[in-house]
Amino acid sequence: MTLYASPETLTVVGGPIVYAISFATVGYIGGNVADNALKGRFYRPELDRELECGEKYPS
Questions:
Q1: What are the transmembrane regions (predicted)?
Q2: Of 18, 17, 16, 14, whose CA–CA distance to 3 is shortest?
């Protein structure tokens, strides 16, 4: 609604909004990569209950 009333506002605030969304996305993906790396490094199959239930196939 605001952009419809004042389209020139998009040129002022559009860039920072795109940068903020990009920064948050890269941070989220980076956090997931780090979390998966730690899980892989310290993985212990004897503690994995999904293997016992047959829901996941061992690699």
A1: 12-34
A2: 14
Task: For residue 45, give every residue at least 6 positions away whose Cβ sits within 8 Å of its Cβ, in sequence order, or none.
Answer: 51, 58
pTM over 0.90: no
Are the CB atoms for 13 and 7 separated by under 8 Å?
Answer: no
List, in order, residues 6 or more apart from 51 with CB less than 8 Å away.
45, 58
For 26-59, how does the pLDDT look when each residue is reduced to its tens digit (9 = 90+)? 999 999 999 999 988 888 888 777 666 665 555 5
CA 43/CA 21 separation, integer angstroms:
32
Helix (H) or strand (E) segment spanning residue 28: helix 8-41
Spatial distance between the Cα atoms of 51 and 1, rounded to a whole number of angstroms: 52
